[in-house]
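Title: Request for sanity check on Acyltransferase 3 domain-containing protein prediction

Description:
We are preparing a figure and want to confirm that the structure record we downloaded matches what your pipeline produces today. Could someone re-run it with the sequence below and paste the raw structure tokens into this thread? We only need the token string, no images.
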Amino acid sequence: MTKDVKFSNIKGILIFLVVLGHLLLIVRGGMESLILLIYAFHMPAFIFLNGYFAKNVTWKKVLNLLLLYIIFQSFYAVITYVTHYGEIFTFRFTTPIFHLWYLVSLACFYAVAILLHKIGKYRIWSMFIIAGILVASVGIRWWATGFLIENPTISGQFLSIQRTFVFFPFFLLGFYINKETMDKCSVALGNFKFKALLSAVLIFIIVYVLSNNPLRFENAFYGFLQSSAFSNTILQFLKIEFQQYIIALIMITILFMLVNNRESTLTKWGDNSLVIFLLHPIFFFIIRMFAADFTTWNPFVKLAFIICISIFACSSLVAISSHIRWLLNPLDSIQKLRRTEILEEEA
């Protein structure tokens, strides 16, 4: 299968925004609007792409993700302890550290994709499953408010259940859409100048909407906070939920409208996005140790510094990716090691 450079470039932009968004949380004073815009769509867009490329996913991939989670949950337990971030957490395998919720959720997404393939993507039972997921996606955070109050020992991030359901619609959309449909939509929107103008107008409207309730939207975008963190009534909750999905879909559309298919640094970042995703928090935890030093910095200086660190993080991790690729497929690595041991025994 020929690689589609456009998808690699989109993944490159998204993984850069993941790194940038995390590092901005350290120096957030004056950066709130940018953080809010990034969190509005970067993970929904990534999960949309996961769905798009899940047409032929296997149980081996699900198992590989779970092994990665166990490995990096253990690794970051040490890192967070050494950098004193671990004081915030009580380490459990049922509570993903920092960014690792994504591995758990992705394993769940893939498991459902395999099930839908087995049943038949367009069979009636598949439609019932999807309807159930969509209902749960909308309602889980409202239900979780009461449940977590009654069970204070359970974390809102338990097994990434809330986030899995909140972001599931984006995975399903990617899973059911095809390239022909996306290409037709792109052609229908006209030339690049019109797309750029339309994108600018839409982003302006989105920033205006977000500025009306920035804290509520930010809490909603995280995906793991129950409804009480961003709404007081059921109507307000449903309104913010609806706006969250619409904003993310608009931003995903803008990405596909504007990103080209020319190879660049973004392509390399996109092709190595898993390495960057898994290891970039090392930079976050180290820089966070000096967070107090940034409080007096000018916001533009802070932003320039964080952008430079984000570029360095992405580029340096790509540079070492060939040496640690074995770590990304622990199941294959274990099987190769086992085969080597068998051959040595036979020799």
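Thanks, this matches our download. The first helix runs from residue 5 to 24.
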